[in-house]
Amino acid sequence: MSFKELLENDLDNTFFNLDEFAEKIMFDTKEVKGIFSEVKSSDKVFKKGKEKNVGLNLSMKKVSVMEIELGYIPRTGSQVKVNNLKYYIEDVESKNGLLSIYLRRVGE
């Protein structure tokens, strides 16, 4: 097995296991296994080095999903429904087949 295959296997069997950390998420029209977490935009801003946004402190969610399961990389700036709630996609990070999608509720 290659390192990439080992990593994907570990992510799928441990983190994206519905009996462990993951939950079923409706992402637009597709049901996927994902992990929700809260994130402050100020933490994200400093991490990414976007100086223009320093001082903002918006409540955002991060949903982590396997790229192969979702089937595409969502576009930053677009609007998406997650579990029937509307969100703006603030940022998307893709690393080793794992997508971290940063979401802000529409209207906030």
Please give a handful of descriptors for the protein shown.
alpha+beta; 108 residues; 3 helices; six-stranded antiparallel beta sheet; single chain
According to DSSP, the number of beta strands is 6
What is the string of SSEs from the N terminus onward?
HEEHEHEEE
Question: Reading side by side through the largest sheet, how are the strands ordered?
Answer: 1-2-3-6-5-4
Helicity range of the residues? Answer: 10-25%
Number of helices: 3
Query: Looking at the structure, what is the overall shape?
Result: globular
Task: Summarize the main sheet.
Answer: 6 strands, antiparallel
Q: What is the rounded distance between the termini?
A: 45 Å
- The helix-and-strand class reads alpha+beta
Estimated radius of gyration: 14 Å
Mean pLDDT: 79
pLDDT under 50 segments (min length 5)?
49-55
Strand coverage percent? 35-45%
Helix/strand layout:
Elements: H1 3-15, E1 23-27, E2 30-40, H2 41-48, E3 59-66, H3 67-70, E4 79-82, E5 85-95, E6 98-105
Antiparallel strand pairs: 1-2, 2-3, 3-6, 4-5, 5-6
Summarize the structure.
The chain contains 3 helices and 6 strands. It has helices at 3-15, 41-48, 67-70, and strands at residues 23-27, 30-40, 59-66, 79-82, 85-95, 98-105. It is globular.
Explain the overall architecture.
The model is unreliable at 49-55 (pLDDT under 50). The chain is built from three helices and six strands; from the N terminus they run αββαβαβββ. The chain starts with a helix and ends with a strand. It is an alpha+beta fold and 108 residues long. Strands 1-2-3-6-5-4 form a six-stranded antiparallel β-sheet.
